[in-house]
Amino acid sequence: MIEQLKHRLPLLLGGFVVITLFFTAFGEKGLIKIYKLNKQLRRIHAQKTFLEKNNQELTQDILKMKREKTFQEHSARETLGLAQDGEIIYEFSD
To answer: How many domains does the chain have?
Structure first.
């Protein structure tokens, strides 16, 4: 009996190591899952940085619109297609 156990012990230990490595890599909290989550986190941080910068630019535009008459006029011309008296607007289409 002990002799059989001595022969099977390396097999059992090897199986245990393989199973442990499998769950370490592929388990619910495994290395592959951690890698994917870190990748997603980096993407979210990049998106956050982009949105913060965009938000800052929009905030500056709002402040300019509130303060500067020329910016208001330019913005109305660009977005609404407005013109002053006597001006002609040309629209080109592809």
So the answer is: 1
Name the token pair of 12.
């059992």
Q: What six digits make up the tokens of 9? A: 């012990």
pLDDT tens string 33-64: 899 999 999 999 999 999 999 999 999 988 88
> Is residue 90 assigned to a domain?
no
Q: Which pLDDT band holds residue 31 (cuts at 50, 70, 90)?
A: confident
Q: Structure pTM? A: 0.54
Structure tokens at 77: 């011309």
Say if CB 59 and CB 65 are below 8 A apart.
Answer: no
Say if 50 falls within a structural domain: yes
Structural domain contains residue 87: no
Question: In sequence order, what are the residues at sequence separation of 6 or more whose Cβ sits closer than 8 angstroms to the Cβ of residue 63?
Answer: none
The residue range of the domain holding 31 is: 2-80
Amino acid (one-letter) located at 7: H
For 47, other C-beta atoms within 10 Å of its C-beta total 10
